[in-house]
Amino acid sequence: MDSDRAWNRFRAAAPALAACIVVGAPLAAGDRAAAAQWKPEKPVEIVALNAPGGGSDRIARIFVKLLQERRLVPVPVSVVNRPGGGGAIAYNYINQRPGDGHVLALGGRAILTNHIVGQGPSYNDVTPVVTLFDEYISVTVKPISPIRSGKQLVDFMKRDPTVMTFGIATSLGNPNHQGVAAAFRAAGLDLKKMKSVIFASGGAATTAMLGGHIDVVPISVAFGASLLRNGQVRIIAVTAPKRLSGVLADVPTWREQGYDAVVSTWRSLIGPRGMTNAQIAYWEGVIQRVLETDEWKRELELNFWINAYKGSMETRKHMAEDNEGVKAFLVDLGLAR
Fold first, then answer.
1. Which of 179, 184, 259, 335 has most Cβ atoms within 10 angstroms of its Cβ?
2. How many CB atoms lie within 10 A of CB 105?
3. CA neighbor of 45 nearest in space, from 71, 74, 80, 75
4. Could you give the count of Cα atoms lying within 13 Å of 180 in the half-sphere of its Cβ?
């Protein structure tokens, strides 16, 4: 009897349930269609965080070249340089256009370090769009430098931690800085005694080093490899967990030299706050098409980049997780509490 009454109630409610299902389905489809329909209607800017010649600038120009050659977007795309503040100027620049899908910054892990030390917006104040790849750091000196290895550099610093001057692009505590500081920390050195000079780009820091104004410059392995090919620098260590290939095959890791210092940095495209799901979905799709090209795959190999694609949600989650480890490192550097 009870089962009969339950069945009758279900039959009476069934038309209403069916109506809800039918009405709800077109709304979901409409949302997907709206997301698929957004596309840029005016020129797009890819903002580099440093001056021409720096890591963000080089990557941005490679990326824009592929967008244009493959005609993956229906509007012109250009690189805009906004150096300064370790990226803070660039992020503030894009955030002047909230909700605008026509401007993206080629950023990276330094957005975490800058905010922790009070020099820029949080990753929560912008829109992470995608993560492109990870890369390691190379520690460079002049070809005629008396420093011939990472271990020798540590020995110099043990005798006198103020004897060497480091050129850091583009802010204290960022992955470049960590590329040497991580080894010094592993060696038990007082990181607060490092003498560091901030530059607007890795190119500017390298120029100062070649001019004899500073002693050591940690830069991305891609940039370091390009300088090594031209005989402009000596690379005394890389922050990878194992040796890299090609022109860097003879360069020992920090680990090989006795210091457990592995440092990588991710590179991401970051939009202004308030971007819509439709805008994010559009750029995720376009970027995936770029990453599938043979040209991009060659760039990965040539520049020792490690494919680490993540969509917007995964990128934001990864930033939140990485933020804790970065803060702990900055405390050791005396840059955070």
1. 179
2. 28
3. 80
4. 34
Full DSSP string of 123-137: GGGSEEEEEEEEEEE
Fold matches, 44-134+264-332 and 136-257? yes
Tell me the two tokens of residue 94. 């894009």
Beta bridge partners of 104: 46
In 3D space, the residue among 114, 109, 117 whose CA is nearest the CA of residue 137 turns out to be 109
Angle between the N-to-C axes of helices 55-69 and 277-291, in degrees from 0 to 180, rounded to the nearest 10:
90
Query: Measured in whole angstroms, how far is the alpha carbon of residue 9 from the centre of its chain?
Result: 58
Hey, what CATH topology would domain 44-134+264-332 get?
A: D-Maltodextrin-Binding Protein; domain 2 (3.40.190)
Rounded Cα distance, 42 and 218, in Å: 38
Which CATH fold would you assign to the domain 136-257?
D-Maltodextrin-Binding Protein; domain 2 (3.40.190)
Q: Are 175 and 275 in contact (CB under 8 A)?
A: no
Radius of gyration of the chain (CA): 24
Burial 57-71 (b: 16+ CB within 10 A, else e): bbbbbbbbebbeeee
Using DSSP's 3-state secondary structure scheme, residue 230 falls into coil
Asked if residues 215 and 209 have their Cβ atoms less than 8 Å apart, the reply is: yes
CA distance 22 to 126: 37
77 contacts 234 by C-beta, under 8 angstroms: no
Find the length of the chain: 337
Listed by start position, the domains of the chain span 44-134+264-332, 136-257
